[in-house]
Specification:
Helix content: under 10%
Order of helices and strands: EEEEEEEEEH
Strand content: 35-45%
Number of helices: 1
Structural class: mainly beta
Shape: elongated
Number of strands: 9
Length: 162
């Protein structure tokens, strides 16, 4: 038999899993809650690469699921941009979605969520999931992002600052 190619992807799943603290108050009905309320909110962002000015992205879609036996999972996706003038992060777009719940990661069929066209020029994507108002563990796979600036100069900037 031929040796296994070391560059062949592993058959194991590569899911993002977010685990919440069950004692948190997660009501997020406004776009600008205090930072202390983010304990049940996952965030995917560019972090320190903000300083280079070439890492903004568009969020397009993701496959998602949450750990619950309840009837459905309530999702809140929020796009965040850094305001260079005021030097603070601002939530600029929010989308709500509801998906079927999963009994656990092993038996979870992820659901595709397509984000609104307004999820553009972002520096972070925040995700909050509740079932009947309680935070839940959630999973994400196949997150589709694209660079906000696809020009060659921006690509060179990203290559220089990996």
């Amino acid at each position: 038999p031929r040796p296994k190619d070391p560059y062949t992807p592993s058959p194991s799943p590569h899911l993002l899993e977010f685990v919440t603290q069950s004692s948190l108050n997660v009501s997020r009905t406004e776009n600008t809650p205090d930072l202390g309320e983010y304990g049940a909110t996952g965030e995917i962002g560019i972090g320190r690469n903000l300083q280079w000015g070439c890492y903004a992205f568009h969020a397009l879609s993701a496959s998602v699921g949450c750990d619950s036996l309840e009837p459905h999972c309530d999702w809140q996706f929020t796009g965040v941009q850094w305001d260079y003038e005021t030097q603070v992060y601002k939530e600029v777009v929010t989308q709500f979605a509801s998906t079927a719940s999963c009994p656990g990661v092993e038996d979870c069929k992820l659901v595709d969520v397509v984000l609104l066209d307004d999820f553009t020029g972002l520096h972070a994507l925040r995700v909050n999931v509740t079932v009947a108002g309680e935070p839940k563990i959630w999973w994400m796979d196949d997150l589709k992002l694209e660079w906000a600036d696809g020009r060659c100069d921006a690509g060179l900037c990203r290559a220089m600052h990996r």
